[in-house]
Amino acid sequence: MAKTTLGAGAITLGVAITFSGCVASTSAQGDAPIVGNSQESAAAPKQPDIIVDKPPVESDFPIVKPIDCTLGQDCFVLLYPDRDPTSAAKDFNCGQLTYDGHKGTDFAIAGWTSDTDVPVLASAPGTVQAVRDGVRDYRIESENEFATVKGIECGNGVLMDHGNGWTTQYCHLEKGSVSVSQGDSVEAGQQIGFVGLSGKTTFPHVHLTIRYQGDVVDPFVGTGSKSGCNVGERSPLWIEPDVEYVSSGLVRAGFSDGAVDMPELWLDGQRGDRFPHNGPALVFWSHVYGVQQGDTEILQLTDPNGRQEVNVNQPIQSSKRVYLSYGGKTTRNGPLVKGTWTGRYRLVRNGETIVDVTKTSVVE
Ligand SMILES: [Zn+2]
User: Fold this and answer.
1) Ligand 1: distance of its center to the CA of 286 in Å?
2) How many A from CA of 107 to the centre of ligand 1?
3) Regarding the domain with residue range 31-243, which homologous superfamily does it belong to in the CATH classification?
4) pTM of the model
């Protein structure tokens, strides 16, 4: 918890880091731990997992993204397959957006409630091999809760056979939303359910695992490339050109009336557009992914008269997959100025602005 005191009437700047993760295997294989800082100390040897890069296969397997959303606008890829055969973890870009043993690609949304109906789509034409539904939607809060999803890590999911040795698996769908049955034929892009929070997951997303003859294939790399993360020439399976690697980006930014908690943000909470002038505080927050040590963040909150109540400019101390920053003004020394307040957050790397978001909120 980094703290920067901002003077009388200001709220301290908060920086919160949380665990996020997804384990999506329905097999009896050992499960990888949920993502987090603690994994760096996990020295236990592990079985080699994924990243079986075979010679190019006879059949192409073009796929579409498994979610109905626009990347960079209302969804983003948070975690990629782990290509590191050791207990460390690397995505195909040699980045940190994965964790040890992660076998799929996680297409995430900023927040989820049972009213959030974002369709999950079949990535290719095929036949439904197996489905599971009936698992509750619940955000796993700590490792102590892993046991509650033992054997059902994928949550509500769908397994599809596409012929020629290719299969796809979709995980963490909303309870009661799976709309296909075993034996059904599906088209590419056909809706098969909604994004949910079932199984072993700490953020709302659909996890997609691609397999060829039983081996996991990284859809950003394809087959026939080198193992590890310096893969050389890639042959991505994605048809859509916008499904590409993004090292960092905005999850969401907004306003709250007090200190902000990342788990609550994933559950669509702590957000508002209008606040009373005599409430406890006005806080501007920014939830981002892929911050890297050495980045600079700038968080500013300006009142309706143009007075800057928060102006923080500080380096990111360590790389994080997900990261939350906030700052605000309390009403300890008097009510908030009525009118439109503006919050702006920027993340800068090597002189390049990676995230730049401005939001407004009305105090009345
Ligand atoms: Zn996943």
Assistant:
1) 23
2) 8
3) Glucose Permease (Domain IIA) (2.70.70.10)
4) 0.86
